Amino acid sequence: MIKTEKVLHLKSSRGRKVRVVREHYLREHVPCYSSLCQAQCANEGKVLSGEVTHYVMPDAGVARDFMEILEFREIQGIVFTQTACQAVQHSRGRRQYNRLRSLLKDPRHHCILFANEFQEYSYCPREKGEPQDKWQTRCVYHAAVWYHDHLAGLKPVVMITEDQTAVAEYSSLNCGVYVLCTQEYLQTFWPELQAALELYCSIAQSLQEKGSEGTEREYTEHLPAEILEAGIKSGRYIQGTLNVNKHRAQHEAFVRFEGSSNKSSELNSDVLVCGGKNRNRAVHGDMVAVELLPKGEWRGRTTALTEGQGEEKGDETQSQPMATGRVVGILQRNWRDYVVTFPPKEETQSQSRNSQRILATPWDQRIPKIRISTQQADKLQDHRVIVRLDSWDSTSLYPNGHSVRVLGRAGELETEVQTILIENCIHVPPFSEAQLGEMPVSSPESPWSVDPAEVITRRDLRQTHLVFSVDPRGCEDVDDTLSIRSLPPGPRGERLELGVHIADVTHFVKEGSLTDLEARARATTYYLADRRYDMLPAVLSADLCSLLGGVDRYAMSVMWDLDAQTLAVNKVWYGRTLIQSSYQLYYELAQALLNGEEAEVPELGTIMDAKLAQLTQALETLTHVARQLRAQRDKGGALELEGVEVRAQLDEDRNITALVPRQPLEVHETVAECMIYANHWVARKIQESFPQQALLRHHPPPRQEFFNQLQDSARARGFTIDTRSNKALADSLDRAVAPGPSACPVRDQCYHYGLALDRYTHFTSPIRRYADMIVHRLLTAAIAMEKGAGPAKALASNKELEEVAQQINNKNRAAQHAQKVSTELFQCLYFRDKDPETDERCVADAVIYTIRANGMLVFIPQYGLKGAVYLKNREGQVVSERQDGGCDWQTGSLQRYLDHITTTTAVGTSTFNLFQHITVRISVQPSRCHSDTIRLEVVSNRPHQAPETQVQTTQPQGARGRSQLVQEVVRQAEASQQAEEKRGRASKLSTEEREFRQSKCPNLYSLLEEVRDIELHKTSDSGSGYCGGGRLKSEDVQEAK
Ligand SMILES: [Zn+2]
Predict the structure, then answer these.
(1) Separation of CA 76 and ligand 1 centre (Å)
(2) Tens of pLDDT, residues 478-499
């Protein structure tokens, strides 16, 4: 080993130049991480494949400025030098450096790190007076030469640089080592990868523009990091995340502080930041440091927004002054990809150069306009485009960014769906060939079959157990099956065996495999209104891991040996099994069997009495057991509502018939109860085995408050809401619809809404939730430990588990949000072309479910649509009821009560009660840059009298209305798509995307959950402000008629 000195010139965060001398050790052996290595390097972990035409080595400048291009998975064989990595670290900060590091770690990216500066023969010391960038480029070139020689010239090495003099100087020095500028490299080696070249041009343009900016200061400079740090410690500054109020995005933001270490003890709320100057270039989501303004300058937050109140109108009422501050520095940028809309032609200002600087408007209203330099402004007007932010200097009124990818024309279905995905950070590209290569083969020609070697390691239940599944009709991904049977009596009497058998996903998906990494990144299957994006490749989710009827499947089972009378648990068995489900039932069929109704079981074909009796008997026993289990939990206190799932059904044409279950079936709860039981017992098992590492579910406390409030409201109206179960909840809401003041006595009961179970986890849906896969692995390890084997390999550490849990939570939130927004998108697309004044489909019955300061939230069962109805407009007029129930706008006032709201005008007083049915008109408020929004206005204070033209079918009306809505929108989109194709444009809809499959739809519970979300929003985000269910937009300026 050789010791030398390395001189670094670093810039301190205050901008001073610092000279640092470090001892530097050189070694002869530094791993090359290439599979072509000729020198027995100690290459552990990821190595570069030899199956590429060349290796590419970016110099420091390319790594620093064009890393996004190197992130394309198509570009393989990338060697990052230590020199380039350090340049990224020093000039682009920790965030960018971490991004590079995760790129290097990710096996899906074919890139490695070569520690060139530790290699004795590739290291070159900096010469006196040599500029840093020149030296770095020289280092990388030397590394490229060494690398090429080290592999005995088996693979050409291409160094890429933006330094034209380097290209001239080095390109002909060594045979087999090429030096190209990035653009030429992309054109030569990746001509198919048009997106990379476009991105290159976009970034290059942005860099060029950046050099030619003005010097006039628009904002105060941010303070350097060490001053911020000291200030936060001393309590002078407050650290927190910036949250922009989307209804007043330009003016109002709040800093929610982190942790309890704030010295300013008088602060017990968020800090208000008013206006752009005080926000000082912080973007929604950034971690910032704020300084409080003198108390005399404190302001109140906006409390009530009235219908039609635009951003700029200033007659809003303000609450009591609160802590108000200004941003003095940014601790961490949390920028993501943003979807923007390019302005129409007349708004783009032409520049002197051949490019244009345009101000694009982000889809997310909380994000400021972004300045982009582009030569495509004309072509892209009214298109939605993904952009990334580059910088926001104090001399620039707006942040600078560059475009990444064009999504399509605004307003088109595919563009809008892609927008929703990007805005929620959901990345669901088709599974790669490498990922699919890990999958077992199953095709009609060579069907998959069980492996005899695997079979002997499993408990075979095929002959001994009657296994069946109960799911929504048409379900493709069957994660769970059940069995129940009598056991020979034991010393304490009759015994039963209950079995829950879950798809053994982790048998097929090995930890750390490419498929596993992809599933972890997705964390869940995403259900949008018209499509779904699976967490796992279809061969698993719809085939080998789906516990279909009549085929052998691997399962992970939990089986309880129970006392038949008391259901006391004698013994629990956990393990891997082999099953064959005999019946794939759907809920209605199972319920019909239980009710003793005529029912045709497809598997039985012509009725075979004995078998049918056996199945019915099993279902009855199961129902009995589930009732008892539930009763036990009820005694313990509370209920897990989320365990009850209602999924959408498909009709014969594979259309979604999404429905709010008006009459939930008991069998739903029976199945759910068994799943809850399994989840609970698996949680016990893994917690016993790994007290430190079990992934357990945690329930947030506010739920209880929410239900209490709902119950209070109901009680005030004279009836009870039973929230113990989905069915009970639905039943009581049904009753609530037509209440008699004394019909339902007020029950004085106090429920607890957490779990009556002390431990809980996710085990029963491994096909569509990554959390369940983790739990399956933990359970497998627990079983192995019990058998005497130490854990085969180290389990994930707590920190890793915590990170994964955080990721799963984030993705789940994103999935829920995307589902909600996509539903709203379809609603808008459906109503967009209908004239609300004449089209009877735009008038519907609505139920008031929440009372607000200046209106109410209503639910329209026919379309499964929720929204705000305003009773007061910007002119101060209120909705007033005529003799016939019809409504007008009149000058008057508004009074809100717990369970009703009244308006008073010269004509008289109108009352709107909680849970009352009213008639509303539905229209669409279009928006060019953001999402369109649904607007609701009261037509009449009475239930809607639907025209008698609708044909009654067995399906509930709501289901029909909503499925028609989605179908019609898709039909329209496909028609216009076909028209486009005729004009020679390529199809953007992949087969996968076009195909409809099972979709998860919001049930009654999720409707109520949303009310809770709004409640939380209200208290934590904008005080007592009215948020209109998150629909009130700055564009709602058009006054109501
Ligand atoms: Zn080597």
Answers:
(1) 18
(2) 999 999 999 999 888 899 999 9
Output the CA 147–ligand 1 centroid distance in Å: 8
When pLDDT is averaged across residues 877-893 and rounded to a whole number, the result is 87
Q: Which positions ≥6 away from 345 have C-beta within 8 Å?
A: 377, 378, 381
CA 34 – ligand 1 centroid, Å: 6
Q: Within 13 A of 916's CA, how many CA atoms are on the CB side?
A: 18
Centroid of ligand 1 to alpha carbon of 610 (angstroms): 70
Q: Which residues of 906-934 are buried (b: 16+ CB within 10 A; e: fewer)?
A: eeeebebbbbbbbbbbbbbbebebbbbbb
DSSP three-state, residue 869: strand
Tokens describing residue 279: 């926000």
Find out whether 150 and 126 touch, Cβ atoms under 8 Å. Answer: no
* Phi, psi angle pair for 238, to nearest 5°: -115, 135
* Res. 1005: pLDDT tops 80: no
CB 1023 within 8 A of CB 318: no
**Which of 571, 614, 620 minimizes the C-alpha distance to 591?**
620
Cross-strand pairs, 894 = 903
Count CA atoms within 13 Å of residue 541 on its CB side: 22
Give me the long-range contacts of 98-106 (CB less than 8 A, separation at least 24).
99/67, 100/63, 100/67, 103/67, 103/70, 103/71, 104/46, 104/80, 105/46, 106/517
CA of 30 to the centre of ligand 1 (A): 8
Best CA proximity match to 285, nearest among 259, 255, 324: 255
Between the CA of 38 and the centroid of ligand 1 the distance, in Å, is 6
Q: What pLDDT score does 461 carry?
A: 96
CA of 115 to the centre of ligand 1 (A): 12
For residue 388, give the H/E element and its range: strand 383-391
CA of 512 to the centre of ligand 1 (A): 25
First to last CA, the chain: 84
Which amino acid would we find at residue 633?
Answer: R
Residue 137 is predicted with a pLDDT of 94
Cα 42 to middle of ligand 1, angstroms: 8
CA distance 1031 to 151: 61
Residue carrying the six token digits 């620093």: 64
d(C-alpha 429, C-alpha 422), whole Å: 12
The DSSP output letter for 540 is I
Residue 138 Cα to ligand 1 midpoint, Å, equals: 21
- Sheet harboring 271-274: ordered strands across? 271-274, 252-257, 237-244, 287-292, 325-332
* Residues in a beta bridge with 869: 856, 936
Residue 923 pLDDT:
92
CA of 352 to the centre of ligand 1 (A): 52
User: In whole angstroms, what is the distance from residue 847 CA to residue 850 CA?
Assistant: 9
Q: What's the chain's length in residues? A: 1041
Q: From the CA of 363, how far away is ligand 1's center (Å)?
A: 49
- Coil, strand, or helix at residue 955? coil
Ligand 1 centroid–CA 127 distance in Å is 28
Split at pLDDT 50, 70, 90, the class of 942 is confident
Q: What is the pLDDT of residue 324?
A: 92
Q: Tell me how far the alpha carbon of residue 102 lies from the centroid of ligand 1, in angstroms.
A: 23
Task: Give the residue with greater pLDDT, 296 vs 9.
Answer: 296
| Residue 518: predicted pLDDT | 94
CA of residue 184 to ligand 1 center, whole Å = 29
Distance from the alpha carbon of residue 32 to the mean position of ligand 1, in angstroms: 4
Is the pLDDT assigned to residue 870 strictly greater than 60? yes
Give the Å distance between the CA of 598 and the centre of ligand 1.
73
Ligand 1 centroid vs 41 CA: distance in angstroms? Answer: 4
Give me ligand 1 centre to Cα 104, in Å. Answer: 18
